[in-house]
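Final report, results section. Input specification for complex C-07:
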Amino acid sequence: MIAVVTVPQPWAPPLEAKIALRNEPRQQRLRALVDTNIDFVARVLQNLGTPTADVDDAVQRTFMVLADRLDDVRPGAERSFLYQTAANVAAHARRSLARRREVSSEQTTERSDLVDTPDVLADRQRARGLLDRILEALGEELREVFVLYELEELTMVEIAAALGIPSGTVASRLRRARERFRAEVARLHEPKGEEESA
Amino acid sequence: MMEPARLIDECPGELEAALLRAGRDVGASNRARARTLAALGIAGSALVASKSAAASATGWSVSQVVVGGALAVAATVGVVALTVGSPSPAVDSVLTTPPIPIAPPTLSAPSAEISKGILTPTAPSEVPKRAIRKPRPTPAPRTAPSASIADELKSLDAARSALSAGNPAGALTRLDEHARRYPRGGLALEAEVLRIEALAQSGNRAAAATRARAFVARYPTSVFTPRVRRIAGE
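Structure output:
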């Protein structure tokens, strides 16, 4: 009789688990990027004109594009990539809004992080609505530079790199954007009659 | 290059300051955070190894928040969570946008690391205008979704973990439980995608394809639709 000796095989994880293990550093990188950039992405999306009701979806889309291309994105350049992707997503959202002919200021979505009183919240929403109108009036080129410099506090050199334009162009766009912004704010102070007769 | 002071630092008027703060004092909602983590399958990813990388990219410290314990495979495991028959209005509203070919940025374009410290939300509105920055306050990153959505995310992550471990039957059981506990949950769309993938992995390709086709018909513009189309064999 021949004895059959079964040699114990080392436990092998299922294929999916192997993939997961292999991807762990990638997943960790992705998770870190989400945690550290998600507020930035949401802010950029909103300030570039994404309708409020679509911001959550746009945030998700932006990071899914990053996930798809993560291996091609140089470490240290992730935020620039996210900005450019978010700008594309926001542009699409604005076009969609125009097609739907809806009014973004009437759309609200949960911002559960906020714990303000109703008055404060109402003031904030009014300010948000006014800012959206003013940023819209700037036009796309001026708006991008204004948002990145005045709201995100990038330097001009960083903005030039992120947008792929010369620093001098950034400076001139910023100058015009600030002038336009102030003019629009001044218009808000005008009595309605003057505005209509102008 | 000499840079002008930011408008917020130039003693703006009350209205101008309020408008600028409105553009700064915003961030991602808890729901956006949960949906993003669920879609990428990284709700359970620990951050130990990536803390330094994140810090180098942003200058922020990264809180270590582990919602679930699972490793996830973003590329192969979708997510989605919504009973197709009873989507929440909020989820529906998210899916009404037309299909979008979102072009990723050109990677060869100059891409400077966008600087640190610029992403901090501004101070509360009652803070005097010139006190808003310098130094700009640095709140702890908001990495944890609120309790209810975090629970939902954890529940969904358990299903994803089972699927990632090669246990689609277990994933489906957990998804059934998830559907019972969160019939109108905020991650319903992500749950449905995960269910479709679990069905496909379990060998029940007919059921997976049926649900996939229903999903595509109902949400033709969802960000998940391309992935679901592949399962449907379209």
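Residues 15-47 of chain A form the longest helix (33 residues). Residues 50 and 92 of chain A are 8 Å apart (CA to CA). This concludes the modelling results for the funded period.
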